[in-house]
Amino acid sequence: MWDNDGKRYIDGSAGPICVNIGYGVKEVLDAAFRQMEKISYAHSSHFTTRSVYEFTEKLAKFAPPGLGRVFLCSGGSEATEAAAKLSRQYHLERGEGSRYKVVARWQSYHGNTLGALSMSGNISRRRKYVPLLIDFPHIPPAYCYRCPFGKTRDACDLDCAWALDREIKATGPDYVSAFIAEPVVGATLGTVPAPDGYFQIIREVCDEHEVLFIADEVMTGLGRTGKNWGIDHWNVKPDIIATAKGLASGYIPLGACIASEKVFEEFKGPFAHGHTYGSHPVACAVGVAVLDYVEKHNLVRKSAELGEYLHKGLRDLYDHPTVGDVRGMGVFAGIEFVKDKESKEPFDAEVGFSRRVLERCFENGLLVYPGVAAVDGFRGDHIQVAPPLIITMAQIDEIIPLLDKSIGEAEGEVL
Ligand SMILES: Cc1ncc(COP(=O)(O)O)c(C=O)c1O
Description:
Elements: E1 10-11, H1 14-17, H2 26-38, H3 50-62, E2 67-73, H4 76-93, E3 101-105, H5 114-119, H6 123-126, E4 138-139, H7 159-171, E5 176-181, E6 184-185, E7 192-193, H8 198-209, E8 212-216, E9 240-243, E10 255-260, H9 261-265, H10 281-296, H11 299-315, E11 323-328, E12 333-337, H12 353-363, E13 366-367, E14 369-372, E15 381-385, H13 393-414
Parallel strand pairs: 1-13, 3-4, 3-5, 5-8, 8-9
Antiparallel strand pairs: 2-10, 6-7, 9-10, 11-12, 12-15, 14-15
Helix pairs in contact: 2-10, 3-10, 7-8, 11-13, 12-13
The structure holds pyridoxal-5'-phosphate.
């Protein structure tokens, strides 16, 4: 990217991990223009356009087998809220009208509108709005670098997953409609994948209590982690996928819920939900062009291959005294910074270490996505490194030294 003064930046975070296919792709621009020429808007109570059919069909094929019923909206918060409402109506249709609570995890993010924020366990983003939120239960995160149960990986019995069983029993299974989780926790924890075995237990617990499992794939979907969907890494099938961001690669607002046949079959009437801009013809035309581009350029496979190269480069940054943990999968990486590597003690919030790294990176011509407060909602510094999936090895070779330099400069300011 170049700013108005001609200064060059490498986009090392795809905006907020959204611009998966990069900027200015002609096929996408043409698809939007062609659709606008045909018809720019048609309300779904009157018409369906061909672009809506094409997109939903394409998305259903891209989804895991058995998930193919698509509801369209305009972003991630709308998608996760729609998933919560879909889950509620699913239970109503089955004659279990007492079920409405969505269990989520602390230190997660599912969006900023009130319903989505009620599910989000991002303490710092919730704090000011707690009185407005729905009282949904939260369980501890799967955060191995700072295990909430004080365990290490070799002595781990996945308490973090069994916590769901305990929470559902404590809340009362008759009140719980769904569990929602990001397969790899994005902005709140800084790209933290679940440990192996975690989602298998989650699936088992959800099945036992007849609770739906919603995978929030707003950040992790569309190849970002090196597979079509983040949850594919664990061979577990969710009941509903909520997705957005990479779906239209930032060219236009677009989000979706993809439900399984099991969910769909319970519906005796339509899903009682919708927005003016759901199933937008132009957004769908863009969605088709973006998915075509992802497939034509093998971006999912590339994300897996280039991800390995990116992670190898990032691991060299462990030489820095503040680089505590490097993690992630595919072209989706995170770095957690600490004041002391041995004790993992974070910087005080006032130090603003990740903000300093962001500022130094920006000055040096690299864009990264910063985050704070992963440790306890107050302290903690991380950045996400997740460039567009069209990144080349040569460009990764530019990113690593820029990060190295910027982290060094931030350390120079505070150590
Ligand atoms: C995992 C996850 N879910 C939901 C959202 C909300 O998406 P939006 O900002 O499009 O409403 C985000 C946004 O960052 C996200 O990362």
